[in-house]
Amino acid sequence: TPMNAILGLGGLLLRRGSDQWQTDKVRKIMEAGRHLLNVINDVLDLSKIEAGKLDLENKPLRIEAIVANVESML
């Protein structure tokens, strides 16, 4: 998918070892791409909920990591 291409190419750029400015920008692209992929997955889950086909699972949540991730994108 296009999102996998963005994340894959971003990963390759990070391994390439560019200067600090470029590395920071690529990391932000990667974080935003992962966030967008989560949004896409959430939309797909909502479709499953509406169709009555979503299986829920109880998992621990690390709110500190979520807040830190959002702060880094701002």
Descriptive account of the structure:
It is a single chain. The protein has 74 residues and is mostly helical. It has one domain. Helix content is 78%, strand content 0%. It contains three helices and no strands. Helix 1 runs antiparallel to helix 2. The longest helix is centred in the middle third of the chain and has 32 residues. The model has no long low-confidence stretch (mean pLDDT 89).
What structural category do the secondary elements indicate? mainly alpha
End-to-end separation in angstroms reads: 26 Å
> What is the succession of H and E elements?
HHH
What is the helix tally? 3
Briefly summarize what is shown.
By secondary structure, this protein is an all-alpha fold. It is 78% helix and 0% strand.
